[in-house]
Amino acid sequence: MAKQNRQSVKSRVRMQDESEGMDSHLHQLFLDQLADIYDAEQQLTKALPKMAKAAESEELREAIEMHLEETEEHVSRLEQVAQSLDEKLKSQTCPAMKGLIKEGEELVKDHKDTSAIDAAIIAAAQKVEHYEIATYGTLATWAEQMGHDEAARLLRETEEEESAADEKLTSVAESIANERAHME
Ligand code: ZN
Ligand code: FE
Ligand code: FE
Predict the structure, then answer these.
(1) pLDDT digits (tens, 9 = 90+) for 37-76
(2) Nearest Cα residue to 24 out of 142, 153, 141, 151
(3) Distances, alpha carbon 77 to alpha carbons 89, 116, 122, 141, in Å
(4) Spatial distance between the Cα atoms of 171 and 184, rounded to a whole number of angstroms
(5) What is the per-residue pLDDT for 10?
(6) Which ligand is nearest to the CA of 33?
(7) Quick one: which of 68, 97, 104, 107 could link to 48 by a disulfide (CB 3.0–4.6 Å)?
(8) pTM for this predicted structure
C-alpha cells in the first residue's frame, strides 16, 4: 500500500514536471507537509482544552487557553496559505502529533493529583511546540525558495507565534518553580 502511494506521487509529479518545470517535486513535498501540519493543528484544537483543564496553576491554564485561540488561527492561516497558491489542502493524518498528544495524555494521567502535574503538562506542550516550530520553519524556507512570498510570510508569522508560545511556557515553568521555592 505504501509502495503504491509512493509510485502514484511519483507519476503525479512526473506529469507536473513536464508542464511546470523543475520545482514540482519540492512543491509536492511542500503540499504534503502543509496537509500534515493542517491536521496536526486540528488535532491540537481538541487536545489543548483538556490540557488547560488539567492545569493546576491559573497562569498555565491561561497560557494554554491563549494558545488555543492562536491555534485556531493557525488552522485558518493554513487555509490562506493554500488559497494563495490556488491549491486545496488534502485531508490526511499527522501520526507524529497523534503520538505527541497520546504521550501527553498519558503523562497527565500518570501525574494527576501530584505536585508535578503542571510540570508534566508543560513538558508535553513544549514537545508539541517544538514539532510545530520545526515544521513551520521548514515550510517557510521552502516557500521562500519557490518564490511563494505570501505563503512564506504567513508561515513565518505562525512560526513566530509557536516560538513565543514555547517561550511563554518556559517562563510559566520558571514562575511555578519560584512560587514553590517560596512556599517551602
Ligand atoms: Zn500552531
Ligand atoms: Fe506530521
Ligand atoms: Fe502551537
Answers:
(1) 999 999 999 999 999 999 999 999 999 999 999 999 999 9
(2) 142
(3) 12, 35, 25, 17
(4) 20
(5) 57
(6) 2
(7) 68
(8) 0.87
Judged by average pLDDT, the poorest of 11-15, 69-73, 171-175, 177-181 is 11-15
**103 near 124, Cβ under 8 Å?**
yes
pLDDT value of residue 8: 60
pLDDT band at 22 (very low <50, low <70, confident <90, very high): low
* Rounded-to-10 torsion of CA 131, 178, 69, 109: 70
Q: Which of 1.10.3720.10, 1.20.1260.10, 3.30.1780.10, 3.30.200.20 is the CATH number of 23-183? A: 1.20.1260.10
Grid coordinates representing 26? 519540492
Q: Phi and psi (nearest 5°) for 56?
A: -90, -45
Rounded Cα–Cα distance for residues 75 and 150 (Å) = 16
How crowded is residue 179: how many other Cβ atoms within 10 Å of its Cβ?
Answer: 11
CA of 183 to the centre of ligand 1 (A): 35
Residues by chain with Cβ below 5 Å of ion ligand 3: 132, 162
Tell how far the Cα of 115 is from the centroid of ligand 1, in angstroms. 28
